[in-house]
């Protein structure tokens, strides 16, 4: 997947049938700004949240994003490796 902005990723998900509500989009923007995460890391946290929760859970997303940022995770492959190693979610 090529690097997309968060807005592009939300549109991509919309095209795949994932309808994120306004409150979810608000959580996404809040988490990104609160953690100062990159678009890549934010998009990865959205993806992992959707896979783990079978829908968007704002508090799960923000916690996951905080954990990734605090552990200096920078890329999607690093994030996936981290959640697998820590057995946070099964993907």
Can you offer a commentary on this structure?
The chain has 5 helices and no strands. It has 91 residues and is mainly alpha-helical. Helix 2 packs parallel to helix 4 and helix 3 (39-53) crosses helix 4 (58-70). The radius of gyration is 12 Å and the shape is globular.
Outline of the structure:
The chain has five helices and no strands. It is mainly α.
Radius of gyration using CA atoms only:
12 Å
The rounded distance between the terminal residues' Cα atoms is 17 Å
The total strand number stands at: 0
Uncertain segments are none
What percent of residues are in strands?
under 5%
Shape: globular
Based on secondary structure, the structural category is mainly alpha
Number of helices: 5
H and E string: HHHHH
How is the main sheet built? none
Give the topology:
Elements: H1 6-15, H2 22-35, H3 39-53, H4 58-70, H5 76-85
Helix pairs in contact: 2-4, 3-4
Tag the structure with descriptive keywords.
91 residues, mainly alpha, 0% strand
